[in-house]
Predict the structure.
Amino acid sequence: MFENLTDRLEGVFKKLRGHGVLTEEHIAEAMREVRMALLEADVNYQVAREFVDAVSAKALGREVSQKLSPGQQVIKIVHEELVDLLGGSAEQIRLDGPQPVTIMLAGLQGSGKTTTAGKLAAQLKSKGRKPYLVPADVYRPAAIEQLQVLGSRLDVPVHPSTTDSKPVDICRQALAEAQDKHYDTLIIDTAGRLHIDERLMGELQDIQRAVKLSEILFVADAMTGQDAVTVADTFNKNLEITGIVLTKMEGDARGGAALSIKRVTGKPIKFVGIGEALDALEVFHPDRTASRILGMGDVLTLIEKAEAVVDRQEADRIAKKLKRNEFTLEDFLDQIQQIKKMGSLEQILSMVPGINKLRQLKDAPQPNEKELVKTEAIIRSMTRKERNNHRIIDAGRRQRIAAGSGTSVAEVNRVLKSYSEMLKMLKKMRGKPGAISGMKRRK
Ligand code: GDP
């Protein structure tokens, strides 16, 4: 996500850094380019204009800091303004107050409501809450079924809605049922249309009047850019939404919806969907996102993800092996498993600071999910003995491994070569104090 904008902004800042002293003209030119970059990212026209006006005013008025170069100061201001544009601080959903709480998901058809209902249920369940999924889309029998399937996968109860009931009645009944069974969070999945229509809006307003809603989350497909923003605005005017879920963010290289929706609607993005899987829902953090847009990576999210999947004992074991130069192909395979648990390579890499610049270098290795799968297959086709001592893998063994993994000898050679290079690099790192032992120190 945001790759195009990151590229463009990096170009602007590179030019700025080239000037020892920044004049008003330099800033004006940079801001013209920032504005173009925002418009190309499909940011709302008015929003882009206000953004560069705010940055210009601050850049010209700010006292000169001794610590930062003029170029860095402008980047800092752009970062601050981006955080503000994206909503300031992260907003959690409201789960306190009288229980059960009710969360209604609304949005156009195909925006990702049902999937998000499942993702939310999974996330809330893992936090110890007792969610109750309520299908209130009575027009498509498949919609009820889709939620039932999700519910049974997640082991979360689903209200037995039928297509002959009115959505508002379903919600009333579901609330009574939740009170009776002590479910603490209703997640209501509503019907969507291809376009906004009055009947749909009326139906949602009926639910809003009949059931006290803690959250009305507007679900929008980030890939639809400014359309998502316009539709969000209409829903907000009719329903007073409390927050936004932007789905399919992982595929949105432009980012225009994310950058405009808060300013236009005044309502915060609370979650982002970053994949079809049920764990691909993240709380939206404006500050981390701003850092990512500016190519500074998102180390905090990376650490959180690593902490969620990395087994501490395993990490200690690997750190010890690395120290003693005993990191084998067997350990390499374990590491691949851990990385896979954190998400797609593309997602993980997007959080690494400076990755965009690195990728632009000639001959830079490009992350490739298929390569990872191949590497895994190749290592799996080795015997345990081979994995623990790669030196015994001669030409004959290479041929066998290639055949076993459905790859070629050249590909087996490539894996062995990267592994040897990794060992060499680790050896170098061991010479540097703290380079590897630092991995162990983090608690
Ligand atoms: P609804 O009509 O609003 O209920 O939309 P669905 O939940 O049925 O989702 C429509 C399609 O979008 C499905 O194929 C989902 O798997 C997909 N989808 C939902 N959220 C995401 C997301 O965050 N990323 C991606 N890539 N696909 C998503």
Summary: The pocket of guanosine-5'-diphosphate is lined by residues 107, 109-115, 192, 247-248, 250-251, 273-276, 280 (CB under 6 Å). Confidence is low (pLDDT under 50) at residues 433-443.
